[in-house]
Amino acid sequence: MADSQLQRLVEVMDRLRSPGGCPWDAEQTHESLIKYLLEESYEFIDAIETDDRAGMREELGDVLLQVYFHSRIAQDHPTDPFSIEDVAGAIADKLISRHPHVFENLEVSGTDEIIENWEAIKAREKGRTSAIDGIAMSQPALPLVAKILYRAEKYNVDLDLNSYSSEKATEKSVGVALASVIAWAHENDIDPENALRAQAREMIRQIQASEKQA
After folding, report:
1. Using CA atoms, how far apart are residues 38 and 66, in angstroms rounded to an integer?
2. How far apart are CA 188 and CA 120, in angstroms?
3. Three-class SS of residue 45?
4. Do the beta carbons of residue 13 and residue 69 sit within 8 Å?
5. What are the pLDDT digits (tens) for 5-47?
6. From 3.40.50.1820, 3.40.50.300, 1.10.287.1080, 3.20.20.150, which CATH number describes the 2-95 domain?
7. Where are the alpha helices (DSSP H) in 50-189?
8. Global pTM value
9. With contact defined as beta carbons under 8 Å apart, do 97 and 125 qualify?
10. Pfam families, from UniProt (predicted)?
């Protein structure tokens, strides 16, 4: 049933994008759909957090639509086309490659080693040599900084940041502290997103400087 419905979605998407289909769908580009991909993802997260099962099913379908929509647009590229089959094949190959403990019977000690293996395989596949390679700079500043911190820790790079290790960190206390900093920024007419993004760029500069010295 799943395969037939997935194929049905391919056929529906193809009809919408083909001559005689929907003019709006035919006009869309990867760029014009970016906002919808973000919106649908956030709406799916909202459904998860409210335990809305019907909403999860609907919003996950909207996210899936974006994958199919982008893949159908990609088929029309004049020099480098690809289809939903290419997308699915690539991710299946990636999952097999990055799970040798499942598909190659590699023995691992636990989830920590699984994550280490995943990162090592990914770095090898993509030819990554820097801690910042592959970080999505267009993501919001908060997850961007979190990713930079994660990579710095993985690559053993020390960053020059204020330490709050003397204070007890809980989800509530961290949330209060973050909200206070955002309020402080607003009181001083500073955009906290831009301020944090500027700090992210400084952290990247520190990592790059450290790597040049290594």
Report:
1. 10
2. 43
3. helix
4. yes
5. 999 999 999 999 999 999 999 999 999 999 999 999 999 999 9
6. 1.10.287.1080
7. 53-74, 84-97, 100-103, 111-126, 141-154, 171-187
8. 0.78
9. yes
10. MazG (PF03819)
